[in-house]
Design goal:
By secondary structure, the chain is mostly helical. Helices cover 81% and strands 0% of the residues. The radius of gyration is 16 Å and the shape is elongated.
Length: 113
């Protein structure tokens, strides 16, 4: 139970740290999906998994006060949805790889601060 404002601040700080730790795993999963698109047996399924992870980062970034992470996750989600709409095997994966690299950089910066 939270009795004092200090306790609440401590709880929220722990939740934010936990979100960043979990985000690292999500970004790794996104990067793995993106890197494997060219050889994936089902590129659409890989993109669908990537989109789910990116969407989670987009929402979590907003909720936990990391708007830059949420925005970067949203860009990955948007590019991946565009690729999926084009036909996962037919579209140019370059913009997706650039968006994933940006997402990695944003997370790295947040973890340094």
């Amino acid at each position: 139970m939270v009795d004092r404002p200090d306790d609440l601040d401590e709880l929220l700080a722990g939740m934010r740290d936990g979100f960043l730790d979990t985000s690292a795993s999500r970004v790794d999963a996104i990067a793995t999906h993106a890197a494997g698109l060219a050889i994936a047996a089902d590129p659409s399924a890989s993109l669908a998994g990537l989109i789910r992870e990116a969407h989670t980062l987009k929402g979590g970034g907003a909720i936990f006060g990391f708007p830059s992470l949420g925005d970067a996750g949203g860009r990955v989600e948007s590019v991946a949805k565009s690729l999926l709409a084009q036909g996962a095997a037919k579209g140019d994966p370059g913009p997706l790889h650039a968006a994933v690299a940006e997402l990695r950089a944003v997370l790295a910066e947040l973890r340094r601060t």
